[in-house]
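#onboarding

Welcome to the new folks! Below is a worked example of what a typical request in this channel looks like: someone posts a single protein sequence, and someone else replies with the predicted structure as tokens. Don't worry about understanding the tokens yet, we'll cover that in week two.

Example request:
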Amino acid sequence: MFISELQKNLDLFRDCLSGPLVQRLAIDNSKPTRKRKSKGHKKKVGDVVDEPNDTRPAAEELTDFVDYVATETFSSFTEDIQALSYSTVQNDARASESFGDPLPVSTLERILTSIPPSVAESLEVYGLLESQADLARFLAPVLQEYVNAATAAPPIWSTTRASACEICERDWIPLTYHHLIPKQVHAKAIKRGWHEEWQLNSVAWLCRACHSFVHRIASNEELAKDYWSVDKLMDREDVLAWAKWVGRVRWKAR
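Example response:
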């Protein structure tokens, strides 16, 4: 699996983990402090006021904590869990059974036993676990959410329509859809193992200028084999230069 795809799954796991972490840590459970007005003021309703004592961690600290726990946990996963995808469960019957909903106890145990003690210790320090023995209870729903998201079927491509060109980012111009894997080479892409059938109809939403540019810089076969995502197209220096230039092209109002 490509490093970028592993990073995508790490980002996905971090997102699943951040929900309960942020929810628990961002709630201000502290009791309000009571403050009396100084002498010399007439007594009025509200002389005794409650002022919240916010003990929530700073946003930067919370960001670092979530990132640390997510990275430590994800790094401990075996390769099959890190590389989970829709393709995994479609093409492997054993994987489909191992990563179902609900997750089998054997899968949960295999994942949890690989997680280093530092993760449970950190969660306990932040008050998220009463004891390190509670790690399974805390992480089980997070792991289930990650597995479900990582193995979810791809969206219907027509529903992915963007509001701006995915290359030049102009949002006021009509868009067309570009088949990232050109239809003319679908059969070859399957035969040579470049892609699976469910990937063939993936599209990018591009303005006509960018759409034409993409087809000028690479053949259909090259697009299917090497440039089958917007990210891969944007890795090219000529595409970046084009996007910067054409993004400044604006029609004058009449």
